[in-house]
Specification:
mainly alpha
């Protein structure tokens, strides 16, 4: 086995600090670098820990007290599962199919509106007036 460069406590505290600062300062794009300096850890290591924390694939707080606390786990109910590449590709394919249907519906509606506009133009230019059903005519006294 090899010696771990950072303790579980340092990892846990650094990740918690980044999460806290992200809530407090959502516009600050240098939080990871600043927290890495604060805890004297490598910024890339901290990014890796955050990725694992964010996607729920690793738990920095081992429940049984054994191991290093960074074992794979199932995400808790409150945290969303991050989809894998296959799931994302399947979702893209589904959305492309739905988009194609919506584009075809849009083309059909455009044709119908064009036909109705042509009919209305012919009716009004040939001297025939169409009564608008939305207008109420009140007889004059």
């Amino acid at each position: 086995m090899f010696d771990r460069k950072y303790s579980d406590e340092v990892r846990r505290r650094a990740v918690e600090r980044v999460v806290q600062r992200r809530r407090e300062e959502p516009e600050n794009r240098s939080i990871v670098r600043e927290v890495a300096e604060e805890f004297e850890v490598g910024p890339q290591s901290l990014r890796k820990w955050l990725t694992r924390y964010d996607d729920g694939s690793y738990d920095y707080d081992s429940a049984d007290g054994h191991g290093d606390g960074w074992e794979p786990r199932t995400p808790p109910a409150g945290r969303q599962h991050r989809p894998g590449q296959r799931e994302l590709l399947a979702r893209i394919e589904e959305l492309e199919r739905r988009n194609a249907v919506l584009e075809e519906d849009n083309r059909s509606l455009t044709r119908v509106v064009s036909l109705l506009a042509d009919q209305l133009r012919v009716a009004t230019t040939s001297g025939v007036r169409t009564q608008d059903p939305t207008v109420t005519h009140v007889p004059r006294a």
